[in-house]
């Protein structure tokens, strides 16, 4: 059995290794589909990944850092966590009654609306994340 000090040192080493603490566990590849139900403008598809059991917000940040054609902003709500404000420069608006909807096309081709947002949703390998600009 490992001593607590040795275990702590091993965990610290994992955090400092390139690729982060989950580098040995692999990645979940995802695609991000940006759609607009309000104006029916052309869809845009991007590829990225999250680390094993990583959250969608990390994958969106990684995508934004690696592809200048994809940008997003979010707002941190104290009760509900982060939620999308804008994608590719288009923001949701209370005045225009629009928002960004999060949907997921799962590997069995079922489109779901997660009961959590971008800060808690954990994508599975080959999920298609749909960011849909929508009116209400």
TrEMBL record:
<dbReference type="InterPro" id="IPR051588">
    <property type="entry name" value="Cobalamin_Transport"/>
</dbReference>
<dbReference type="GO" id="GO:0015889">
    <property type="term" value="P:cobalamin transport"/>
</dbReference>
<keyword id="KW-0732">Signal</keyword>
<dbReference type="GO" id="GO:0005615">
    <property type="term" value="C:extracellular space"/>
</dbReference>
<dbReference type="InterPro" id="IPR027954">
    <property type="entry name" value="Transcobalamin-like_C"/>
</dbReference>
<dbReference type="Pfam" id="PF14478">
    <property type="entry name" value="DUF4430"/>
</dbReference>
<feature type="signal peptide">
    <location>
        <begin position="1"/>
        <end position="24"/>
    </location>
</feature>
<feature type="domain" description="Transcobalamin-like C-terminal">
    <location>
        <begin position="75"/>
        <end position="134"/>
    </location>
</feature>
<dbReference type="GO" id="GO:0031419">
    <property type="term" value="F:cobalamin binding"/>
</dbReference>
<protein>
    <recommendedName>
        <fullName>Transcobalamin-like C-terminal domain-containing protein</fullName>
    </recommendedName>
</protein>
